[in-house]
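dumping the sequnces here before i forget
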Amino acid sequence: MTQTQSLIERIREAGGKVTTQRTAICTVLEQSDDHPHAEDVFQRAKLLDSTVSLSCVYRNLKYLVDQGLIDALDLGDSKHRYEVRRTTPHDHLIDLSTGDVVEFRDAELDALKRKVASRYGYRLKDHRLALFCYPKSATT
Amino acid sequence: MTQTQSLIERIREAGGKVTTQRTAICTVLEQSDDHPHAEDVFQRAKLLDSTVSLSCVYRNLKYLVDQGLIDALDLGDSKHRYEVRRTTPHDHLIDLSTGDVVEFRDAELDALKRKVASRYGYRLKDHRLALFCYPKSATT
DNA sequence: TTTCTAATTGCGAAACCTTCGCAATTAGCC
DNA sequence: GGCTAATTGCGAAGGTTTCGCAATTAGAAA
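..and the predicted 3d for all of it:
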Protein backbone atom coordinates (compact mmCIF):
# COMPACT_ATOMS: atom_id res chain seq x y z
CA MET A 1 0.00 0.00 0.00
CA THR A 2 2.39 2.61 -1.21
CA GLN A 3 1.47 6.23 -0.79
CA THR A 4 1.96 7.07 -4.43
CA GLN A 5 1.42 4.10 -6.67
CA SER A 6 2.29 4.47 -10.29
CA LEU A 7 -0.36 4.06 -12.94
CA ILE A 8 1.27 0.87 -14.16
CA GLU A 9 1.30 -0.60 -10.68
CA ARG A 10 -2.35 0.12 -10.31
CA ILE A 11 -3.13 -1.35 -13.72
CA ARG A 12 -1.26 -4.52 -12.82
CA GLU A 13 -3.15 -4.81 -9.54
CA ALA A 14 -6.41 -4.44 -11.39
CA GLY A 15 -5.43 -7.26 -13.73
CA GLY A 16 -4.69 -5.14 -16.76
CA LYS A 17 -1.90 -6.14 -19.07
CA VAL A 18 1.31 -4.16 -18.93
CA THR A 19 2.46 -3.58 -22.47
CA THR A 20 5.37 -1.48 -23.56
CA GLN A 21 2.97 0.93 -25.28
CA ARG A 22 0.79 1.24 -22.23
CA THR A 23 3.84 1.78 -20.08
CA ALA A 24 5.06 4.56 -22.34
CA ILE A 25 1.66 6.25 -22.33
CA CYS A 26 1.38 6.07 -18.56
CA THR A 27 4.88 7.40 -18.11
CA VAL A 28 4.05 10.34 -20.32
CA LEU A 29 0.92 11.11 -18.33
CA GLU A 30 2.80 10.94 -15.05
CA GLN A 31 5.54 13.19 -16.31
CA SER A 32 3.23 15.78 -17.86
CA ASP A 33 1.68 18.49 -15.77
CA ASP A 34 0.42 20.54 -18.70
CA HIS A 35 -2.85 18.74 -19.38
CA PRO A 36 -1.83 17.24 -22.72
CA HIS A 37 -4.39 16.20 -25.29
CA ALA A 38 -4.28 12.92 -27.17
CA GLU A 39 -1.95 14.11 -29.89
CA ASP A 40 0.47 15.49 -27.30
CA VAL A 41 0.50 12.19 -25.49
CA PHE A 42 1.08 10.40 -28.77
CA GLN A 43 4.07 12.53 -29.72
CA ARG A 44 5.67 12.17 -26.31
CA ALA A 45 4.98 8.46 -26.02
CA LYS A 46 6.57 7.80 -29.40
CA LEU A 47 9.85 9.08 -27.99
CA LEU A 48 9.70 6.38 -25.31
CA ASP A 49 8.40 3.62 -27.56
CA SER A 50 8.38 4.16 -31.27
CA THR A 51 5.76 1.46 -31.80
CA VAL A 52 3.00 3.43 -30.07
CA SER A 53 0.20 4.29 -32.46
CA LEU A 54 -2.36 7.06 -32.19
CA SER A 55 -5.27 4.67 -31.82
CA CYS A 56 -3.40 2.90 -29.06
CA VAL A 57 -3.11 6.23 -27.28
CA TYR A 58 -6.82 6.87 -27.65
CA ARG A 59 -7.67 3.39 -26.46
CA ASN A 60 -5.46 3.69 -23.43
CA LEU A 61 -6.72 7.13 -22.52
CA LYS A 62 -10.25 5.76 -22.63
CA TYR A 63 -9.17 2.74 -20.64
CA LEU A 64 -7.52 4.86 -17.98
CA VAL A 65 -10.52 7.14 -17.71
CA ASP A 66 -12.81 4.12 -17.35
CA GLN A 67 -10.52 2.76 -14.65
CA GLY A 68 -10.76 6.07 -12.86
CA LEU A 69 -7.01 6.57 -13.01
CA ILE A 70 -7.02 9.71 -15.10
CA ASP A 71 -9.51 12.49 -15.83
CA ALA A 72 -10.61 13.93 -19.14
CA LEU A 73 -10.99 17.67 -19.12
CA ASP A 74 -12.88 20.11 -21.30
CA LEU A 75 -11.01 23.36 -21.15
CA GLY A 76 -12.70 25.24 -23.92
CA ASP A 77 -11.08 23.95 -27.07
CA SER A 78 -12.48 21.01 -28.97
CA LYS A 79 -9.98 18.48 -27.72
CA HIS A 80 -10.06 16.46 -24.56
CA ARG A 81 -7.17 17.05 -22.26
CA TYR A 82 -5.97 14.57 -19.68
CA GLU A 83 -4.42 14.51 -16.26
CA VAL A 84 -3.61 11.83 -13.71
CA ARG A 85 -6.29 11.74 -11.07
CA ARG A 86 -5.05 12.80 -7.70
CA THR A 87 -6.56 12.19 -4.32
CA THR A 88 -7.52 15.83 -4.01
CA PRO A 89 -9.87 17.09 -6.72
CA HIS A 90 -9.26 20.55 -8.03
CA ASP A 91 -10.57 23.10 -10.51
CA HIS A 92 -8.98 24.94 -13.38
CA LEU A 93 -8.31 28.56 -14.14
CA ILE A 94 -7.48 29.35 -17.75
CA ASP A 95 -5.32 32.38 -18.47
CA LEU A 96 -6.92 33.79 -21.61
CA SER A 97 -3.86 35.85 -22.46
CA THR A 98 -1.46 32.92 -22.54
CA GLY A 99 -3.55 29.76 -22.51
CA ASP A 100 -1.87 28.65 -19.31
CA VAL A 101 -3.88 26.46 -16.99
CA VAL A 102 -3.68 27.09 -13.27
CA GLU A 103 -4.94 24.41 -10.93
CA PHE A 104 -6.54 25.46 -7.70
CA ARG A 105 -8.64 24.16 -4.91
CA ASP A 106 -10.88 26.04 -2.57
CA ALA A 107 -12.64 24.31 0.27
CA GLU A 108 -15.24 27.04 0.56
CA LEU A 109 -16.06 26.67 -3.13
CA ASP A 110 -16.31 22.90 -2.78
CA ALA A 111 -18.69 23.20 0.13
CA LEU A 112 -20.81 25.71 -1.71
CA LYS A 113 -21.16 23.44 -4.73
CA ARG A 114 -22.52 20.69 -2.53
CA LYS A 115 -24.79 23.13 -0.76
CA VAL A 116 -26.27 24.40 -4.01
CA ALA A 117 -26.85 20.87 -5.28
CA SER A 118 -28.53 20.01 -2.01
CA ARG A 119 -30.77 23.04 -2.25
CA TYR A 120 -32.17 21.66 -5.50
CA GLY A 121 -32.61 18.20 -4.05
CA TYR A 122 -29.47 16.66 -5.44
CA ARG A 123 -26.33 15.02 -4.18
CA LEU A 124 -23.16 16.20 -5.89
CA LYS A 125 -21.41 13.37 -7.68
CA ASP A 126 -18.90 15.25 -9.78
CA HIS A 127 -18.41 18.71 -11.17
CA ARG A 128 -16.50 20.77 -13.64
CA LEU A 129 -15.48 24.31 -12.96
CA ALA A 130 -13.33 26.32 -15.29
CA LEU A 131 -12.62 29.99 -14.71
CA PHE A 132 -11.61 31.95 -17.80
CA CYS A 133 -9.57 34.93 -16.71
CA TYR A 134 -7.25 37.72 -17.69
CA PRO A 135 -4.35 38.77 -15.50
CA LYS A 136 -5.33 41.62 -13.22
CA SER A 137 -2.76 43.82 -14.89
CA ALA A 138 -4.09 43.27 -18.40
CA THR A 139 -6.19 45.95 -20.02
CA THR A 140 -8.49 43.64 -21.96
CA MET B 1 -35.98 49.84 -25.79
CA THR B 2 -38.23 46.93 -25.11
CA GLN B 3 -37.65 44.87 -22.02
CA THR B 4 -37.44 41.62 -23.91
CA GLN B 5 -36.31 42.07 -27.46
CA SER B 6 -36.45 39.09 -29.75
CA LEU B 7 -33.30 37.78 -31.31
CA ILE B 8 -34.46 38.87 -34.75
CA GLU B 9 -35.14 42.40 -33.52
CA ARG B 10 -31.68 42.57 -32.09
CA ILE B 11 -30.14 41.22 -35.27
CA ARG B 12 -31.99 43.81 -37.33
CA GLU B 13 -30.80 46.61 -35.03
CA ALA B 14 -27.25 45.38 -35.40
CA GLY B 15 -27.55 45.53 -39.17
CA GLY B 16 -27.76 41.81 -39.80
CA LYS B 17 -29.99 40.50 -42.54
CA VAL B 18 -33.25 38.89 -41.59
CA THR B 19 -33.67 35.80 -43.72
CA THR B 20 -36.39 33.22 -43.42
CA GLN B 21 -33.83 30.63 -42.37
CA ARG B 22 -32.33 32.87 -39.73
CA THR B 23 -35.79 33.70 -38.45
CA ALA B 24 -36.66 30.03 -38.14
CA ILE B 25 -33.44 29.28 -36.29
CA CYS B 26 -33.93 32.16 -33.88
CA THR B 27 -37.51 31.15 -33.25
CA VAL B 28 -36.40 27.64 -32.41
CA LEU B 29 -33.79 28.92 -29.98
CA GLU B 30 -36.29 31.19 -28.27
CA GLN B 31 -38.85 28.44 -27.95
CA SER B 32 -36.41 25.81 -26.66
CA ASP B 33 -35.47 25.64 -23.03
CA ASP B 34 -33.75 22.28 -23.24
CA HIS B 35 -30.32 23.41 -24.43
CA PRO B 36 -30.52 21.89 -27.91
CA HIS B 37 -27.43 21.04 -29.89
CA ALA B 38 -26.97 21.92 -33.54
CA GLU B 39 -28.76 18.87 -34.90
CA ASP B 40 -31.73 19.51 -32.62
CA VAL B 41 -31.95 23.08 -33.83
CA PHE B 42 -31.74 21.86 -37.41
CA GLN B 43 -34.58 19.36 -37.01
CA ARG B 44 -36.83 21.88 -35.31
CA ALA B 45 -36.03 24.69 -37.70
CA LYS B 46 -36.83 22.52 -40.70
CA LEU B 47 -40.40 22.30 -39.43
CA LEU B 48 -40.67 26.06 -39.59
CA ASP B 49 -38.79 26.49 -42.86
CA SER B 50 -38.01 23.44 -44.94
CA THR B 51 -35.21 25.24 -46.78
CA VAL B 52 -32.97 25.46 -43.70
CA SER B 53 -29.77 23.47 -44.16
CA LEU B 54 -27.51 22.08 -41.49
CA SER B 55 -24.62 24.30 -42.47
CA CYS B 56 -26.91 27.28 -42.26
CA VAL B 57 -27.74 26.26 -38.71
CA TYR B 58 -24.07 25.99 -37.81
CA ARG B 59 -23.31 29.33 -39.42
CA ASN B 60 -26.11 31.05 -37.59
CA LEU B 61 -25.25 29.50 -34.27
CA LYS B 62 -21.71 30.76 -34.71
CA TYR B 63 -23.02 34.13 -35.78
CA LEU B 64 -25.31 34.41 -32.77
CA VAL B 65 -22.54 33.38 -30.40
CA ASP B 66 -20.22 35.97 -31.95
CA GLN B 67 -22.94 38.59 -31.56
CA GLY B 68 -23.26 37.65 -27.92
CA LEU B 69 -26.91 36.77 -28.35
CA ILE B 70 -26.64 33.11 -27.42
CA ASP B 71 -24.22 30.99 -25.44
CA ALA B 72 -22.52 27.74 -26.36
CA LEU B 73 -22.38 25.26 -23.53
CA ASP B 74 -20.26 22.23 -22.82
CA LEU B 75 -22.33 19.92 -20.70
CA GLY B 76 -20.21 16.82 -20.81
CA ASP B 77 -21.03 15.25 -24.14
CA SER B 78 -19.03 16.06 -27.23
CA LYS B 79 -21.58 18.39 -28.79
CA HIS B 80 -22.05 22.05 -28.19
CA ARG B 81 -25.40 22.97 -26.77
CA TYR B 82 -26.97 26.38 -27.10
CA GLU B 83 -29.19 28.73 -25.18
CA VAL B 84 -30.37 32.28 -25.59
CA ARG B 85 -28.28 34.54 -23.43
CA ARG B 86 -30.19 36.14 -20.64
CA THR B 87 -29.32 39.15 -18.59
CA THR B 88 -28.57 37.00 -15.59
CA PRO B 89 -25.83 34.43 -16.07
CA HIS B 90 -26.36 31.05 -14.50
CA ASP B 91 -24.80 27.65 -14.04
CA HIS B 92 -25.98 24.16 -14.81
CA LEU B 93 -26.78 21.11 -12.74
CA ILE B 94 -27.02 17.85 -14.65
CA ASP B 95 -29.23 15.11 -13.24
CA LEU B 96 -27.22 11.98 -13.95
CA SER B 97 -30.24 9.73 -13.52
CA THR B 98 -32.36 11.45 -16.16
CA GLY B 99 -30.04 13.73 -18.10
CA ASP B 100 -32.18 16.71 -17.15
CA VAL B 101 -30.44 20.05 -16.92
CA VAL B 102 -31.36 22.36 -14.08
CA GLU B 103 -30.34 25.97 -14.31
CA PHE B 104 -29.42 27.79 -11.16
CA ARG B 105 -27.75 30.87 -9.92
CA ASP B 106 -26.11 31.54 -6.64
CA ALA B 107 -24.73 34.94 -5.78
CA GLU B 108 -22.44 33.57 -3.14
CA LEU B 109 -20.96 31.14 -5.64
CA ASP B 110 -20.50 33.93 -8.19
CA ALA B 111 -18.69 36.08 -5.66
CA LEU B 112 -16.47 33.21 -4.62
CA LYS B 113 -15.43 32.51 -8.21
CA ARG B 114 -14.26 36.09 -8.57
CA LYS B 115 -12.53 35.94 -5.21
CA VAL B 116 -10.62 32.80 -6.13
CA ALA B 117 -9.55 34.26 -9.46
CA SER B 118 -8.40 37.38 -7.68
CA ARG B 119 -6.41 35.35 -5.21
CA TYR B 120 -4.35 33.97 -8.07
CA GLY B 121 -3.87 37.39 -9.64
CA TYR B 122 -6.60 37.15 -12.24
CA ARG B 123 -9.79 38.93 -13.19
CA LEU B 124 -12.68 36.63 -13.97
CA LYS B 125 -13.87 37.05 -17.54
CA ASP B 126 -16.11 34.05 -17.95
CA HIS B 127 -16.62 30.68 -16.38
CA ARG B 128 -18.22 27.30 -16.78
CA LEU B 129 -19.62 25.39 -13.88
CA ALA B 130 -21.48 22.15 -14.27
CA LEU B 131 -22.57 20.08 -11.30
CA PHE B 132 -23.17 16.41 -12.03
CA CYS B 133 -25.59 15.05 -9.47
CA TYR B 134 -27.90 12.29 -8.44
CA PRO B 135 -31.21 12.97 -6.76
CA LYS B 136 -30.87 12.85 -2.97
CA SER B 137 -33.25 9.92 -2.88
CA ALA B 138 -31.27 7.83 -5.35
CA THR B 139 -29.11 5.04 -4.03
CA THR B 140 -26.34 5.33 -6.57
C1' DT C 1 10.20 -23.54 -21.05
C1' DT C 2 6.39 -24.25 -23.99
C1' DT C 3 1.59 -23.64 -24.81
C1' DC C 4 -2.66 -21.40 -24.64
C1' DT C 5 -5.97 -17.63 -24.59
C1' DA C 6 -7.75 -13.35 -24.06
C1' DA C 7 -6.19 -8.72 -24.04
C1' DT C 8 -3.89 -5.52 -26.68
C1' DT C 9 -1.99 -3.61 -30.80
C1' DG C 10 -1.34 -1.30 -35.70
C1' DC C 11 -3.40 -0.09 -39.61
C1' DG C 12 -6.70 1.99 -42.23
C1' DA C 13 -11.38 3.03 -42.64
C1' DA C 14 -15.17 5.13 -40.75
C1' DA C 15 -17.93 7.91 -37.62
C1' DC C 16 -18.88 12.15 -35.74
C1' DC C 17 -19.30 17.09 -35.28
C1' DT C 18 -18.06 21.22 -37.43
C1' DT C 19 -16.16 24.31 -40.98
C1' DC C 20 -15.25 25.77 -45.67
C1' DG C 21 -15.39 26.88 -50.85
C1' DC C 22 -18.08 28.35 -54.33
C1' DA C 23 -21.77 29.42 -57.18
C1' DA C 24 -26.55 30.85 -56.62
C1' DT C 25 -29.86 33.41 -54.09
C1' DT C 26 -31.73 37.21 -51.55
C1' DA C 27 -32.42 41.17 -48.11
C1' DG C 28 -31.90 45.85 -47.75
C1' DC C 29 -30.85 50.13 -49.93
C1' DC C 30 -30.59 53.36 -53.87
C1' DG D 1 -36.56 47.64 -60.61
C1' DG D 2 -31.56 47.14 -59.98
C1' DC D 3 -27.34 46.94 -57.28
C1' DT D 4 -24.28 44.88 -53.83
C1' DA D 5 -22.88 42.55 -50.07
C1' DA D 6 -24.61 39.21 -46.93
C1' DT D 7 -26.48 34.83 -46.76
C1' DT D 8 -27.57 30.37 -48.44
C1' DG D 9 -27.32 25.14 -50.11
C1' DC D 10 -24.57 21.77 -51.46
C1' DG D 11 -20.98 18.84 -51.09
C1' DA D 12 -16.37 18.37 -49.79
C1' DA D 13 -13.06 18.64 -46.36
C1' DG D 14 -11.32 19.27 -41.71
C1' DG D 15 -10.22 17.62 -37.02
C1' DT D 16 -10.94 14.54 -33.31
C1' DT D 17 -12.21 10.11 -31.89
C1' DT D 18 -13.81 5.34 -32.58
C1' DC D 19 -14.00 0.88 -34.83
C1' DG D 20 -13.05 -3.63 -37.46
C1' DC D 21 -9.99 -7.05 -38.13
C1' DA D 22 -6.00 -9.67 -38.46
C1' DA D 23 -1.59 -9.98 -36.08
C1' DT D 24 0.91 -9.72 -31.85
C1' DT D 25 1.83 -10.38 -27.03
C1' DA D 26 1.41 -10.53 -21.78
C1' DG D 27 0.31 -13.45 -18.27
C1' DA D 28 -1.28 -17.80 -16.66
C1' DA D 29 -1.22 -22.57 -16.89
C1' DA D 30 1.03 -26.78 -17.95
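Residues 17-19, 37-39, 54-55, 58-59, 62, 78-80 of chain B lie near DNA strand C (CB under 10 Å from a C1').
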